[in-house]
Amino acid sequence: xxxxxxxxxxxxxxxxxxxxxxxxxxxxxxxxxxxxxxxxxxxxxxxxxxxxxxxxxxxxxxxxxxxxxxxxxxxxxxxxxxxxxxxxxxxxxxxxxxxxxxxxxxxxxxxxxxxxxxxxxxxxxxxxxxxxxxxxxxxxxxxxxxxxxxxxxxxxxxxxxxxxxxxxxxxxxxxxxxxxxxxxxxxxxxxxxxxxxxxxxxxxxxxxxxxxxxxxxxxxxxxxxxxxxxxxxxxxxxxxxxxxxxxxxxx
Length: 251
Known about the structure:
Radius of gyration: 40 Å
Largest sheet: 2 strands, antiparallel
Structural class: mainly alpha
Helix content: 40-55%
Strand content: under 5%
Strand order of the largest sheet: 1-2
Shape: globular
């Protein structure tokens, strides 16, 4: 009887195992060719580093008139250098300057260059043609303003007030307001301000193309530098002998 009981238990266990296997989905063997095709069709996984490299880096400084400040370049990449002098800075004035100081230096250079170019034209024109104030203003140009103040004192006041307004406008456009100054009081330019570009262009001469703008800026700087030297020469020469510049040329 015990033997029959053991056989019944064995048969029952086998039948239960067979019944349970009927509910399991059969496994289909994949051929090697199909496995290779699936591997070939799977897209390559893009790593986080590659995905980050594809995103263009945001410039550290804003691009103004086609110029983006670059600390690795001469004068932070500002235009103004031409052959054969190239990066001419024998005194090292532009060495180790941060961007704020570099822009302040360029602002001063452009502004003084513009004043000097106007001054040179004023010397040559006023000493040869001066119909204003009854034609009584003459002689060396360095003395003209003294004569004007004697003939028409109010004109000097109007001139000074006009210059003050122009400088006030320039400071409001380009300079950081005093409460926001971080390092150089009175000498910090706005980050989005290009040195010398106060928006005054009544004739529409400013190029829109960055390369053309850099070329025009370089020409302005070169003419301004020459004019600063010329105006200093005019002033010193007339201080020495009290004669007009055109008089020295026999004109």
